[in-house]
Fold each of these.
Amino acid sequence: EAKHSGRNTYAFFSQHLDAQVHEEQRLQQRLQQALGNDGLELHYQPLVDVASNRVIGVEALARWTDSELGPVAPTRFITSAEATGLILPLGEWVISEACEQLAQWSRAGLELRVAINVSAMQFRQHDLVQRLGAILEATGAPPERLEIEVTETVAMADVALTRDQLRGLKALGIRVSLDDFGTGYSSLAYLKSLPIDKLKIDRSFIVDIDQEPESEMILRAIVHLGHSLGLTLVAEGVETTAQRDFLRMIGCDLYQGWVHSSAMAGSAVRDHLHVARA
Ligand code: C2E
Ligand code: MG
Ligand code: MG
Ligand code: MG
């Protein structure tokens, strides 16, 4: 009896694993197809000045709704693309698409910054800076309005490489943000030695500031530290006006979050700016 149920349990888990592997393969196939068939989109989330509540830029976020799988979360398909190497062509598409949009806004007189997320494998490409330079030239996007976001974890994994890449990006005139700050481990000495412009404080530090006094203290300390290193501080995932008020009180520079707006299609950004400024 016991033996029998054990075998059933094994069969259950084995089938479950098979199903997962199958699902992952299907996702990878569909993603590859989407990339080749113009099936991915970039949406843009406003980056807002805390003090004036004015939109100063946007972050480009990849979106994918597959005809068979439905909408797939970015963390899901980005992770999958990292595992297969598809992230390199996908990342290149993101850069081109975002730069084209930036060039278009810039020609139309919209002074918006555009931030792009760069994944681990992409950041380790030895020719990333050259590729970016070529895309900037081809699209006519103004480099001083382009920002590259790299996560703290990726940046700190190989500080020597990070320093080289960031120097190359700076030489092109591009700014650099450390994304998901606080979730990894940054040595302060390294933080000081890297040519970073912004710290994007991870959402997990914002989410419970109204409830947890410790979170308020940590957030204050991060803002203070960042400012003393000459960095611009950005809070991610701001969902309530109470959170925004707190950020204003402690002097955080910029925020992103649903309390202002989620990400939208590029074509909706101009109207959003008019409404937000009215
Ligand atoms: P991220 O770069 O830290 O982006 C912020 C994430 O927080 C986005 O999730 C955004 O939609 C979400 N968010 C913004 N405001 C709020 C809020 O008020 N509340 C909550 N709960 N969430 C908020 P999204 O779009 O699902 O992207 C998740 C992650 O996937 C990104 O985190 C980034 O690491 C990655 N990703 C997205 N697009 C790209 C891309 O084009 N290339 C690369 N390499 N990674 C990307
Ligand atoms: Mg980001
Ligand atoms: Mg982030
Ligand atoms: Mg994040």
Amino acid sequence: MIELDDVRKSYGAVPVLKGITASVARGEVVCVIGPSGSGKSTLLRCVNGLESYDGGAIRVNGRRVDRADRSIRAVRVQVSMVFQRFNLFPHRTALENVVEGPIFVKGERRAEAEARGRDLLARVGLAGREEARPPQLSGGQQQRVAIARALAMRPDAILFDEPTSALDPELVGEVLGVMRALAEDGMTMLVVTHEIGFAREVADRVLFLDGGVIVEQGPARRVLTEPEHPRTRDFLRRVL
Ligand code: ADP
Ligand code: MG
């Protein structure tokens, strides 16, 4: 569903992605791990066209991702993104945040979008909090609203960029639990995370990115328990 073929990107003269080749198949969960500054966020942002890339190709459902092309809007509907800092509208209720995209981007009728939005909020454990505004919710609840909002677009895949890194430790589990349930339901997911336990248990495959290069990739258990590359070993020693 998502294919990256020798993807290159620089910020000015600084190369950040140096030829990334990887893929995510339908129903697969792929976790991206790697040190700060290795290019993980840039990689995700290129996949849904928030950033342009300079070389190689990214395809989603066989269609080339081109930030300058009108088709990028279709890609953004097919591939939703969940950010580290939730990015909810603070003055709108949880339900309003969830139905915004379906109504204004996809043109769904409000009544139907709201009915489905309530179902999605229930699915992420927030039944009864539909009218709460983000400042009244914990970080974990806000991130679950953001996941419901991503699901509301009926995406083919969801990209997560360190979805639990901004949370107090006691709130991490509830968000990972929702992500695990999504994975079990067959959602295609590309997840940047430092939660190695989650990656080991939920991911099909893991990519280790360092300095804009995929140093190692393979089945999650293999990469995380018997890494082949010294840089992967060193990184895992530091985060575990
Ligand atoms: P990660 O998510 O792995 O921490 P990023 O993709 O955010 O890494 O960043 C990779 C590199 O690109 C870093 O060196 C960062 O400073 C640089 N970078 C990221 N965004 C920009 C930007 N908008 N302009 C210039 N440099 C950037
Ligand atoms: Mg990042």
Amino acid sequence: HAKESGKARYALFDVEMHNAAMKRLKIENDLRHALERNEIKVFYQPIIDLPTGRLVAFEALARWIHADLGFIPPDEFIPITEETGMIHSIGQFILHHSLGTLKFWQTQYPQAKDISISVNFSSKQIEHHDLLSEIEMALNENQLPAKALKVEITEGLLIENAELAQQLLKSLAEQDIQVLLDDFGTGYSSLSYLHKFTLHTIKIDRSFIYQMDHSEEHHTIVKTIAYMCKHLKKGVIAEGVESEKHTKMLKELGIQHAQGYFYSRPVSGEDAKELIVKYNS
Ligand code: C2E
Ligand code: MG
Ligand code: MG
Ligand code: MG
């Protein structure tokens, strides 16, 4: 009896594994056509200057709207594009598309004049490409200054490829392109990164902000990161700001910039215009 049900479980497990593998295969195959089918979209989430309440930047976030599977979040498809190398074409598309959109806003709205765009770059993207010249080309193509673009990286790059990262970050700094360290506080978060690498701004991971108002410990962590960044002369952005209470606490800690659902979820380029008008008029 036990043997039989064991067999049944095994068979079920097998079916599940098979289905998961098939789905993954479908996703991987369909990803190859996602760009040409116009299924990859860029959404934009505002970054707000806390003292003035003005919208100072947008983070560009990739979206995949699959023809029959619907919305597939970036955490699901970006890792696959990294494994297959497709991250290069998709990353290039996101870079060009978001800079083009920024240029469009700037020509349409005086309120968008000083806005910049933050673009995420994965380690894979940086390791296999001449990213610097690609970035310069994209800026030139859209007649945008270096300050229009912020490069978001994660600690992974600094750990996996310290030498290359150091070179790239140095040359980005020489071109006046600011580099933001994303998801700070998760992963390894060695403090030595903060002075070893040319990082302009730290983005405090949303897991700390999220619990700040009901956990004294999380509040202390945010406070300490803010203090450290202030004395190291680095900018700070709080991610995942979801409530008025969060913004109040962040202001009290002297944190300059905030991003999160409290201000807006990531929106389409079309809807972002309303946010520019709302925050900067
Ligand atoms: P990330 O760069 O840390 O982006 C912030 C993520 O937090 C976004 O998720 C955003 O929608 C979400 N978020 C923002 N505010 C809030 C909030 O108040 N509450 C909560 N719960 N979440 C909030 P998203 O868009 O799903 O992106 C997930 C991750 O996928 C990004 O994390 C980034 O690592 C990666 N990613 C997205 N777009 C790209 C891209 O174009 N290139 C690369 N290489 N990675 C990307
Ligand atoms: Mg990011
Ligand atoms: Mg982040
Ligand atoms: Mg992330």
